[in-house]
């Protein structure tokens, strides 16, 4: 998520840490290997033995076999305990690592020569932390740490190819950081100058795309006659039968997640509101600063403001007068990752006392000049009932262990009653920037034939949102198609996660009745893989472009779709709260049932090309382009209202 700073790593080297002789264990087995070998980076040298690393040992949680069962118990419409979400304490108590796991890992570390006084256990009991020299770490986990340099920019980061643990300890450890996780993308020269992390629209790669052949719009449409060219709030209301005014805004919550330096401009919101929702001029989100997150205004332009402007304009417009929480994550120096915002909303996941990976996550307090020097944001916010996230990264860029640990956290948020939405990607079956994988699962700039799915959208415990469009020449009364102008709706099958029970019937039906014309060398055709997205919404919208003095531009992307779906779920939650009920939480088990199918507009045209192929094709029922279709709120709301 961010550029690892050797300045930060080496600053710890000044600490007075004893260097005991660590006994190498003879029964070590490989625990993790790097997901992808570094591309466009040059291995420069071995990392100095005396440098100090903040080692974090992620302990295996208890009762992980109960995750899906517990989530379904409060999320599936047929469950007698539907909607009876768990408390945070119940979740912590259920999944905390066992005493035996903690003791076994501590024993391994102390037997290896690390004094017990140097070890620290996180409050959630999920992590053991120790600051260790490179020499200690390499001996302990049989690894070699190297420094990698990007030739064009001079940027540097560290990592090891693989690491090992004793065979009898392996079952007690999920993963160890920092080790094999590697930031593959490079920040722009301007970002290097500002010492900021790589902006979300590149590494966390979704972000709205401008239509290349479009000049700023001279006029703003005021009716539905041009919805096939310029989507407005009224177009969306007509498409998805949105006709509800919130009444429970004092208790309902809706969060929009953004990563600094991406930030909104109030002048952009006001110009949008003046044209489409005049009563909201002057309305601003409630800023929740996570790890020093700021709504910066020094750097402006589409690349810095487009995403946040877009998310907030449509979320505010569709849920008026619902307040919106802006989960602004990361300072201007370190930046942040998905783990950082998860820390903030769930203290049981929080790594305030250790756990974040400096090659992936922002590390706080930030020791760099100008960085956020307060404590890491640990459990500072009750999870909003809905959180919309318009960002993602290639699934292949993380290890399976890293992805699984984060995915389990999304399940816990669902147990608490939160709907977590992630955009499905803008490059069809390819990864960010159209990159596909070679036969070894490595990114290939040319000739890659293997599809490259996104993450976290492939996690079966989040709701993946794809993109649709009003086909040229059609109206809001005609069926939409999969988005194929400028971007292609991300979709396909995970290479990490198994198919969850709730989507087994729908996905199996697709594979049986509409078998894709691709081989196992191109996608995970096992028939038991998690399929995505789960549903879709329009991905061609009308947004303010701030970089040219407040002009309107046409933009595209699944980053447009996620806040639209989030707005509809927020309206449903409002109606349920007004009826004395709770939020819907994890919606996937409901939307895949037969009873809910009539509440979705089935998308049967279009595809999501990529990797030299036409990609998958939208068809009757669920498909790996648009999911179960687009929501019809007037039909969906009574179905959710009828549930306990």
From TrEMBL:
Note the PROSITE patterns from the entry. SEDOLISIN
Q: How is the cofactor bound?
A: Binds 1 Ca(2+) ion per subunit.
* First-listed, main subcellular location of the protein, grouped into a coarse class: secreted
Give the signal peptide range. Answer: 1-18
Q: Does the keyword Kinase apply?
A: no
- Catalytic reaction equation(s): Release of an N-terminal tripeptide from a polypeptide
Q: Name one GO cellular component term.
A: extracellular region
The source's domain of life comes to Eukaryota
Main enzyme class: hydrolase
* Pfam annotation, one family: Pro-kuma_activ
Q: What is its EC number?
A: 3.4.14.10
Record key words, sorted: Calcium, Glycoprotein, Hydrolase, Metal-binding, Protease, Secreted, Serine protease, Signal, Virulence, Zymogen
Task: State its location(s).
Answer: Secreted, Extracellular space
Q: Which GO terms describe its molecular function?
A: metal ion binding; serine-type endopeptidase activity; tripeptidyl-peptidase activity
Task: Give cofactor(s), names only.
Answer: Ca(2+)
Q: Which GO terms describe its biological process?
A: proteolysis
Positions annotated to bind Ca(2+): 602-603, 621, 623
Active site located where? Answer: 307 (charge relay system), 311 (charge relay system), 559 (charge relay system)
Q: Could you tell me which residue ranges the Peptidase S53 domain spans?
A: 230-643
Could you tell me what this protein does? Secreted tripeptidyl-peptidase which degrades proteins at acidic pHs and is involved in virulence.
Q: What is this protein called?
A: tripeptidyl-peptidase II
Give the originating organism. Dichomitus squalens
């Amino acid at each position: 998520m961010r550029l690892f700073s050797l300045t930060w790593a080496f600053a710890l080297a000044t600490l007075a840490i004893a260097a005991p002789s660590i006994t190498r264990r003879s029964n070590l087995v490989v625990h993790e290997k790097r997901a992808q070998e570094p591309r466009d980076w040059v291995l420069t040298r071995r990392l100095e033995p005396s440098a100090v690393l903040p080692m974090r040992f992620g302990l295996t949680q208890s009762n992980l076999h109960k995750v899906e069962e517990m989530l379904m118990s409060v999320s599936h419409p047929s469950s007698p305990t539907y909607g009876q979400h768990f408390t945070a304490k119940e979740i912590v108590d259920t999944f905390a690592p066992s005493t035996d796991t903690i003791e076994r890992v501590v024993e391994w570390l102390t037997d290896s020569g690390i004094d017990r006084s140097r070890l620290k256990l996180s409050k959630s009991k999920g992590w053991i932390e120790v600051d260790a020299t490179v020499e200690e770490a390499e001996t302990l986990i049989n690894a070699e740490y190297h420094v990698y340099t990007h030739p064009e920019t001079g940027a540097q980061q560290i990592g090891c190819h693989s690491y090992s643990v004793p065979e009898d300890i392996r079952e007690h450890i999920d993963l160890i950081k920092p080790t094999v996780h590697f930031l593959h993308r490079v920040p722009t020269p301007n970002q290097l100058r500002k010492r900021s992390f790589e902006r979300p629209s590149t590494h966390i790669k979704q972000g709205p795309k401008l239509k290349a052949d479009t000049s700023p719009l001279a006029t703003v449409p005021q009716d539905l006659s041009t919805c096939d060219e310029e989507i407005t709030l009224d177009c969306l209301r007509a498409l998805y039968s949105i006709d509800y005014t919130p009444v429970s805004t004092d208790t309902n919550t809706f969060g929009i997640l953004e990563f600094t330096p991406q930030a909104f401009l109030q002048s952009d919101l006001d110009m949008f509101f003046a044209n489409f929702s005049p009563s909201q001029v002057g309305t601003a989100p409630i800023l929740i600063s996570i790890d020093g997150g700021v709504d910066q205004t020094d750097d402006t332009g589409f690349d810095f403001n487009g995403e946040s402007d877009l998310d907030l304009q449509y979320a505010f417009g569709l849920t008026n007068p619902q307040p919106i929480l802006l989960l602004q994550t990361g300072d201007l120096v370190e930046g942040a990752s998905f783990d950082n915002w998860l820390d903030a909303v769930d203290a049981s996941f929080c790594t305030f006392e250790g756990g974040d990976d400096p090659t992936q996550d922002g590390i706080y307090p930030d020791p760099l000049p100008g960085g956020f020097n307060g404590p890491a944001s640990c459990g500072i916010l009750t999870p909003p009932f809905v959180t919309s996230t318009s960002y993602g990264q290639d699934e292949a860029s993380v290890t399976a262990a890293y992805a699984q640990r984060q995915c389990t956290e999304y399940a816990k948020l669902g147990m608490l009653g939160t709907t977590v939405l992630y955009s499905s990607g803008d490059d069809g079956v390819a990864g960010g920037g159209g990159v596909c994988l070679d036969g070894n699962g490595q990114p290939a700039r040319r000739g890659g034939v293997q599809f490259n799915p996104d993450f976290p959208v492939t996690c079966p415990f989040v709701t993946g949102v794809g993109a649709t469009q009003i086909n040229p020449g059609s109206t809001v009364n005609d069926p939409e198609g999969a988005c194929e102008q400028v971007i292609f709706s991300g979709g396909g099958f995970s290479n990490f996660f198994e198919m969850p029970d709730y989507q087994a019937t729908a996905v199996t039906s697709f594979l049986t009745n509409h078998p894709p014309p691709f081989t196992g060398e191109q996608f995970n055709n096992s028939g038991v893989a998690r399929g995505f997205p789960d549903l879709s919404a329009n991905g061609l919208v009308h947004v303010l472009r701030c970089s040219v003095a407040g002009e309107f531009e046409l933009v595209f992307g699944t980053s447009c779709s996620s806040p639209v779906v989030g707005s509809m779920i927020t309206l449903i939650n409002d109606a349920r709260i007004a009826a004395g009920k709770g939020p819907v939480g994890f919606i996937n088990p409901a939307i895949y049932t037969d009873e809910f199918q009539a509440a979705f507009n089935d998308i049967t045209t279009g595809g999501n090309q990529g990797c030299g192929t036409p990609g998958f094709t939208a068809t009757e029922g669920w498909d790996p382009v648009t999911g179960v279709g687009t929501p019809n709120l007037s039909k969906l709301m009574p179905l959710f209202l009828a549930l306990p």
